[in-house]
Write a structure and sequence with these properties.
mainly alpha, elongated, 3 helices, about 70 residues
């Protein structure tokens, strides 16, 4: 039996759910998923604001033109 790989969004959602619904400490979830505590907190915040869409990759492109 071949296990299907989970998408990045699915992995992030699982991490968020472990904290919110499972009561697992953020530190433990961060260690399980190989990310920082800050990343887990940011994903929880984004999930609360935008749902699953908040867990998708975000652009790192500059938002404003600095030339004025």
């Amino acid at each position: 039996m071949v296990l299907a790989e989970r998408s990045v969004v699915e992995q992030r959602y699982e991490a968020v759910q472990q904290v919110l619904a499972g009561g697992v400490p953020v530190t433990e979830v961060a260690a399980r998923f190989g990310v920082s505590r800050q990343s887990v907190h940011a994903r929880i915040r984004r999930h609360r604001v935008a749902g699953l869409a908040g867990l998708e990759d975000r652009s790192h492109r500059q938002r404003h033109d600095k030339a004025a």
